[in-house]
Amino acid sequence: MEKRTATTTVSVVDGEKEDHEIDTLSNWLPGYWHRFPFIGATALLCIAVLACIALGVLVGSDGASTTHWPQRVAPSIVLAAINAISSLCLTVAIGDGVAIAWWRRAMKGSTIADLHYQWQLSHGIFANLFTRPRSVLSSKIALAVLAMQVTLLNSILYQRATSTVLAPDLPRNLSAIGIGAEEFPFTGYVVSDTSSAAQTSFMIGDSFIPVVNTFGTSNGFFRGYNELFRFSTDSVQERMDKYGYCSGVCYFDFEAIGFEIDCIDATNHTDIALPAIAAYEADGDPAAWTNIPIFNSSFALKYASDATNYSRIVLNLQYFQSDDPYNPKSTTCPGLVTNKQCSLRPAIVSYPVKVTNFTNEHVINGVSLSVRRTNADDDQSINADVAPPRYNKGLKQVEGFKVVEYLYPQDGKEMRSLTALGGIANAYAQFLSSSAAITYTGDEEWSLDQKGTLAQTMMYGPPNMGSCDCSFRNESLDTILQSVNQLSFLVATGMVDTTTFKSLPHKKETFPAASPSALIVAVDSNTTTSFRASAGGAVQLQDVTHYQTHYVYAGVAFAITIVCIALVIPSYWHYGELGRRVTLGPVEIASAFGAPILIDNSQIRSSEARNETIDTLIKHIGDRKIVYGFVDVNKHGETSHQEMQLQESASTSPHLEALDGLASLRQTTTTGAESPTRSPALNQDDGPAQSKMQKRRSVRLAMGAPEYVRPTSQVFPKSPRVA
């Protein structure tokens, strides 16, 4: 076999051709700095920065309330904008990278089929993912396009990454004003000419009845009383119409009539069963074993005297606590007997007021007496289990309340005279008086007699029916005093005439600026009271919408973004090998393939068309008019393997028969003039002189100058014939 040897051929070129080749090489400038893809790199950098911003928004908004976050740029809106901009940047980056990868593949050497396949991948990979998975996964173009498909998940993940929940907002300091009685109004009449001032000595007046009914049915929550209080975000205002409703729950201290509570107590440890059983067995006095008190609460009014210059209400409380509530025996019942006597002296008291005011129509608005809890959320279910505030002997009130100054109401003793404290004492007696007593019936059996509510609600321990071991809670006094303060607060606020300023529910109306005082509708005699600011600053707690971040979704979205960037970067590999900026535009690719329509120009040579940048090429031939349609390939007397025979195609494509009626083409004559004539491909009926070859001219679908193209818009399929 003859050995092949390498040979070198030296060609002599003229000066003009050599200069052109030098110009062509000067347009090809490879290098990693010259060809750095600034647009694509900037797009990838923007994607990374936007991903960090999205993560920062999610972290920063977690737990933030809508009142402290710009309402117009909610996290979901910011994330949607970031996702949209990231998708746009990714599209730019992929377009730049795919063009670089495609042209580099062409530079390395490939086939037309492979280049076409790579170009197809730039428009989607799923069509070939199952038929040619290995080719898809090994293609840099496919990886870049895969990034675009994967990043679509981010729109869903970002939506799931943030949500909203309803929770209390941060406390907000406010100033507050309210209206309440500063002097005790008359609440009833004296109906018994006696100095005992017992419950039966007084009758509640008509003006006081609504207050008593509210006390008996409210369970400590006074519906609608939020109308008496207004709040402002500024300091104390001179004009009352500058105040508005509380938005949510507001806590503040409000001064009005009430009572100083001064209690003394005594205890005695004894066995309440032994004396009763001994008297019963000895046939002694029945009072010794009958109705032995184990619980009792009662109220009475004490008038002013030489010893005390003020009238007062006296509370007496007695209750028994067994040493062993589970004692199975009934012959002995040792325990502690506690006696408490409390003097309720009229005074101005600072009440801890809780105003509930929501715009939600399903929420009942009103007022209750409650100290704000700083160690727990303000939740209704939590507050329902809160024990009553404990009595503080040093404060002479329960915790959270404060005695400001004493008052000296004048109460008459005579029949039919008006009374201020008598109606209140009567209401206390009606609702808070209670008793429980046991009676020994022999054979180690005891009967229990209870009257009123407290004797039943304050009892604890097992239901020792027939036993004497009945115990009562130490919270009995606290429970009674809680009700005492609630009724005194209602006396201060519930008898105010609100017709002059009471607004419709949930409207942001305020107190009238021209009404510095209000009327107290008392029994038979009215008084006035003034609007005044609260003694302490108010605090508002509002249930508002809070943003909540789900970090699993946020982390997955961030990871997908990084993966997408990593999938796009390989398409830029060795970008510096390219000598000019490239795209996947059809004109640029057609120019690289040497399309005649691009190089048939006196102003630009074919070699220039293949080597100039796309911008230069468009500058030279961009104004050339072209149209897509049927082109006569034999116009220059040439034939090719791509041509199609009109007559043969017409038999399989009926719509081509319509070509017989198309507009004529322009043909250039030998003199250079143009005249309208019929296309040679259609001159089938001009006479027998024409050869068979002339009758069967070839046409193909292609781009061409308008004068050489028959438009496809004039070709229509035949309508089906109706039989």
Automatic annotation (TrEMBL):
<keyword id="KW-0472">Membrane</keyword>
<dbReference type="Pfam" id="PF11374">
    <property type="entry name" value="DUF3176"/>
</dbReference>
<feature type="transmembrane region" description="Helical">
    <location>
        <begin position="36"/>
        <end position="57"/>
    </location>
</feature>
<keyword id="KW-0812">Transmembrane</keyword>
<feature type="region of interest" description="Disordered">
    <location>
        <begin position="668"/>
        <end position="723"/>
    </location>
</feature>
<feature type="transmembrane region" description="Helical">
    <location>
        <begin position="77"/>
        <end position="103"/>
    </location>
</feature>
<protein>
    <submittedName>
        <fullName>Uncharacterized protein</fullName>
    </submittedName>
</protein>
<feature type="transmembrane region" description="Helical">
    <location>
        <begin position="551"/>
        <end position="573"/>
    </location>
</feature>
<feature type="compositionally biased region" description="Polar residues">
    <location>
        <begin position="668"/>
        <end position="682"/>
    </location>
</feature>
<dbReference type="InterPro" id="IPR021514">
    <property type="entry name" value="DUF3176"/>
</dbReference>
<keyword id="KW-1133">Transmembrane helix</keyword>
